[in-house]
Amino acid sequence: MFFWSLVLIAVGIFSSFIYGRSRIKLNSKKQGTKSKSLPNYYAQYVLMWCLFPALIVYFSWAIFQEQIIQNIVISNFEYIEGAVYNEGLLLAEIRNVANNPSFADGKSIEIINAASHYSSLRQISQISFYTSIIIIMLLGALYASQKLKPEFHAQHTIEKYIQYILIFCSSVAIFTTIGIVFSLIFESLRFFAEVSIFEFLFSTEWYPFIPIREGQTAAEGSFGAVPIFAGTFLVMVVAMCVAAPLGLLTAIYLAEYASQRVRKIVKPLLEILAGIPTIVYGFFAFVSVAPFVKAFGQSIGIDASPTSALAAGMVMGVMIIPFISSLSDDVINSVPQSLREASLGIGANKAETIKKVILPAALPGIVGAFLLAISRAIGETMIVVVAAGTAPNLTGNPFENVTTVTVQIVVALIGDQEFDNPRTLSAFALGLVLFVITLFLNIIALQIVKRYRERYE
Amino acid sequence: MNNSVAKEKIVSLRKKRSLEDMRFKYYGFTAMCLSLAVLVFLLYTIFSKGYTAFQKTIVLLEVDYNQEVLKLTSDSSDEEMEKGKFFRVKKQAIENFFPDLSKSDIKLVKKLFSINVDNEIKDYFLDNPEVINTKQQIWVTAHSDVDQLLKGNSRRDVPEDRRKLNDIQLSYVDQLVEENRVKQVFNNFFFTKADSRHPEIAGVAGSFMGSLFTLFTVFILSFPVAIGASVYLEEFAPKNRITELIEVNISNLAAVPSIVFGLLGLGVLLNVFGLPRSTPLVGGSVLALMTLPTIIIACRASLKAVPPSIKEGALAVGATKTQAVFHHVVPLALPGTLTGTIIGLAQALGETAPLIMIGMIAFIPNIPTGLTEPSAALPVQIYLWVESAERGFQEKSAAAIMVILIFLFMMNAIAVFLRNRFERKW
């Protein structure tokens, strides 16, 4: 379906273009006047009318077809008295049988019936899809061809359409934000309908296992996210303890001391560090750093767990070194040369100049860089998923196992995803917290950096 | 007198200060070296853990293609051959693998072989049907436990109950090594097979294809939109509040954690629109939304780099603004926008968390062939293997990391090449 519909649309594009071009030439010849715009613009006009309505239909069909068909199949399903059905499993079974007739052996008659119903609906949908696409393309082209007169300003219209398309492209970012905010808030509200927001924010018990079946004697789940926030904070602090000094000193060295040649070699190498996928850091933390931390803990008499805040935090720190160093490097470079020269001129040496003049001048920018790095550390997922553990633990000891917001989101969604229990929905509440905090940090950081830039420009 | 004391003081102070200066410089130098040392150590770890995955262990097995055991005749059709009883042939071969094996020993011997041996025996026969009723010596894949032992990844000096292979099996393996009935060859499975529960026949082909399809989707969706958005913001947008809102929005979106985009994909694309789970189509859409801000920022920079005189020249000879932009500015900025897009794609390639959210973490044992088929992706595959308890998967995950790093390196090399080759300094 995918391939042939592409072919269909390609044919539509091609033929509408040719048609528009020849038609306007014909019309202007008939009237004996020159057209107001070049023939290509009329052709583009026809093309747009042919293409865009068809594309809209195409996408809505692709999105809604499966859902509608499934709803019809399920609503017409002949339920046998007394049997219990799980709708999701039932649908999967029906689809399997429909796609692969050899699976039909041994299936009950109502499933086989539903499967044939399903395939016939699919066929109908398929046929009506192609016909409606063709009709819509033809209608569009027909509408456009009415306008193909020499006195029509095709170019103006085309340029207006192009503007609309461009505006649509730029608003995709806005739609994304709206989508994020709404999906997070909507699912979070469902979560907070079952779990009180105060419990979530202030209680220290995170025990998200709730009875799945009725009558199951499991403890009530409790959703106090404080240990998770504390774990996130701990990992972030460890990461910043590694990244802040290393990143800042590297930036100072590169900006103030290093020769052009060293800069040219080291900066791309640091960029490699920034470009390595986070799962690779996770592997590194798991395979090399965590055993090392455990051995180190044992050697100084602390019982370290195999996955620890320290291992995850250290590796995360390495990950954000290039982030801090490149941002700080920019900041330090934009401190005006005159400050440097004045300080050196009254006899201060380089270290004194950096410590007493440049760093204070660059401080706001560096703070901004650190805030961005913190937000990056909080939102980082794969390192902590692999190396920090999944059990909530309210502790300040970095050798212990902790869990973070991102880890809990992954854990909540990795198993079965029934959207009716608070365990799954808790992921969205945690996601909302994460989103709000990182957004807040980013806005502050960008504001600080912007103000800092303005000061020296 | 007084003078010389003061002089001495000044000299010592100066010494102290210059020492401080030196020390500070070396702090910076050490920090830089440490960062780079970690990079080297990281790459070394990956290489040293992973290079063994490119080899597999094979064992020489004598197989008797007896037509009665196979339930075939010499003039069986291809279809009948497909259905031959190869598992019986395998069973026989394993029973005769060492002379005089007891029943319990046979069980132990069986565990030295991969589950894939049936298929290998079958494929050998289908390629050479004339071997019927003959005995053939063929090399078949060993079990991952044997493989890991011979590669030295699992140790033999730990107590027997904590080992995968017991003492009797170890002695079998030693005997095989002595008789030269076992050797290591290039691991073609790693590049031709998809994921598997059995480490010795697990490969990256499935997840690699999944990643390719995902990247294709990302490119198709994000490149045109990014160009459109950046052209609008850079060339057409009026300076007003809405434009400012869009710009602030884009820069903030660039810093939203990737996992939140995963939640967006789950909440909107899967639950509201009902797109198929675990597919490159959904994964690509989520990653496209995620990388869009990065690409837009890069595209805007390259549009900005085109000198205004070019546009003004076009306007001066009577082009409309749209013509000036699309005929003159955009083509000149195209290499830059492509570079930015490739860098955005590289970022998308390494992203794991959003793909886990939309279910690309499912176990997919076959190679996907389309955008709407469930598939894995390279980084998620690495995650699955890292998390796996089976020892044989650890080298696989390191090797898969090498694959992804090489892939990333090539993308960046293309980006740098494009930049150097086509970018003009004005």
Characterise this structure:
- The complex is a heterodimer of chains A (457) and B (426).
- Chain A has 2 domains: 2-152, no CATH class; 222-455, MetI-like fold (Orthogonal Bundle).
- Residues 215-219 of chain A have low confidence and may be disordered.
- Chain A starts with a helix and ends with a helix.
- Chain A contains 15 helices and 2 strands.
- Chain A is mainly α and 457 residues long.
- Chain B has 426 residues and is mostly helical.
- Chain B has 3 domains: 2-51; 54-193, no CATH class; 205-422, MetI-like fold (Orthogonal Bundle), CATH 1.10.3720.10.
- Chain B has helices at residues 2-50, 67-70, 78-82, 86-95, 103-110, 117-127, 144-151, 167-178, 189-192, 205-236, 241-253, 258-270, 280-304, 308-316, 321-350, 353-357, 378-387, 392-422; strands spanning 55-64, 135-141, 182-186.
- Chain B has a 3-stranded antiparallel sheet with strand order 2-1-3.
- The longest helix of chain B has 49 residues, at 2-50.
- The N and C termini of chain B lie far apart (66 Å).
- The mean pLDDT of chain B is 89.
- The chains are: A mainly alpha (457), B mainly alpha (426).
- The interface between A and B is large, with 95 and 94 residues.
What are the defining features of this structure?
heterodimer, A: mainly alpha, MetI-like fold, 2 domains, 15 helices, flat, B: 426 residues, 3 domains, 3-stranded antiparallel β-sheet, 3 strands, 65% helix
Short description:
With 457 residues, chain A is mainly alpha-helical. Chain A is built from 15 helices and two strands.
> What string gives the helices and strands of chain B in order?
HEHHHHHEHHEHHHHHHHHHH
Shape summary of chain A: flat
Query: What is the name of the CATH superfamily of the largest domain in chain B?
Result: MetI-like
Q: Quick one: biggest sheet of chain A?
A: 2 strands, antiparallel
CATH superfamily of the largest domain in chain A: MetI-like
Strand count of chain A? 2
Query: What's the number of domains of chain A?
Result: 2
Main sheet specs of chain B = 3 strands, antiparallel
Mean pLDDT of chain B: 89
Count of helices of chain B? 18
- Please compute the radius of gyration of chain B using only Cα atoms: 31 Å
